[in-house]
Write a structure and sequence with these properties.
The complex is a heterodimer of chains A (about 170) and B (about 110). Chain A is α/β, with parallel strands linked by helices and about 170 residues long. Chain A is about 35% helix and about 25% strand. Classes of the chains: A alpha/beta (about 170), B alpha/beta (about 110).
Chain lengths: ~170, ~110
């Protein structure tokens, strides 16, 4: 399988890998390709892809977002992860994920965020800031329009890093 | 006045209880902290809800994935996905406050 090219942003608590214009035909194919990338780089175990696909079948992660650029958050249990990472992929053409809040219906997804989570409590703030990215149509639009992997990595690093003023004591 | 505030308990459920439940629990905690209202939040997998209700006896269940009425055992269930998408987030928070018997603040 062809492992896509990527850019990395290093965060204090996890690495962010960015893949742009990935050509995939299905959500399963997306999970397979991104999971392989994480596996290749040692972030996850060889059980991660299968576990993520299985989890997505029983509890899907597609999210319909306000700005119309929908996202999905496929992931697997901590036992499949070696060290924390977040891989973000912008797809050449959207693929269908089933909705988290309504598994009977589907949502067309353009950006996939696949976190490899080792210990949720240690980077809860990063995860919460990631959700703030989802919620902000302006940032999702920036991510959609950015031209290079590096640009996307830079946007995410800024958004996911603690900001001095807004951080609570 | 003078009475000890009731212990508010919220059960947050998602598929694996690692990513999205953690975030939703965090967002709810922030909202209660802002009002200085103590709250105990427990996370679990959607498949564990039934068992957790027995031991934890929550006031309300916030679930990111549909929970059957049977599993909820008569407890109110509120959709947690708005905390991940921002769509309908204030309404969801309002429903949680109402479910635990707190008047939602006007500037939610």
């Amino acid at each position: 399988m062809c492992i896509p090219g990527y850019a990395v942003a290093l965060m204090r608590d996890m690495d962010i890998l960015v893949v742009l214009e990935m050509d995939s035909s299905s959500s399963e194919d997306v999970i397979r390709k991104l999971g392989k990338l994480l596996e290749e780089k040692g972030y996850v175990k060889d059980t991660f892809v299968k576990a993520t696909i299985e989890r997505e079948k029983s509890v899907p992660t597609g999210l319909e977002l306000a700005g119309g650029v929908n996202a999905a958050l496929p992931h697997a249990g901590v036992e499949h992860v070696n060290k924390p990472a977040l891989v973000v992929a912008r797809l050449k053409r959207p693929v269908t994920f089933r909705r988290m809040d309504d598994p009977e219906s589907e949502v067309s997804v353009r950006i996939v965020f696949m976190p490899a989570i080792k210990d949720p409590s240690s980077y809860i703030k990063t995860l919460m800031r990631l959700v703030d990215v989802f919620k902000d149509p302006w940032v999702m639009d920036l991510l959609t329009k950015a031209r290079t992997e590096r640009e996307v990595a830079q946007i995410l690093r800024e958004r996911l890093s603690p900001s001095e003023e807004s951080e609570e004591p | 006045m003078g009475t000890k505030p009731r212990d508010i308990k919220i059960l947050v459920a998602c598929g694996t209880a690692i990513a999205t439940a953690t975030v939703v629990a965090g967002k709810i905690k922030q909202a209660f902290d802002k009002l200085k209202i103590p709250v105990t939040i427990v996370q679990c997998k959607a498949s564990e809800v039934q068992g957790k209700i027995e031991v934890f006896d929550p006031d309300v269940i916030v679930a990111n994935t549909p929970i059957s009425e049977k599993a909820a055992k008569g407890k109110p269930v509120i959709n947690g996905v708005p905390f991940l998408t921002g769509i309908g987030e204030k309404e969801a928070l309002k429903k949680i406050f109402e479910a635990v018997g707190i008047t939602p603040p006007a500037d939610l």
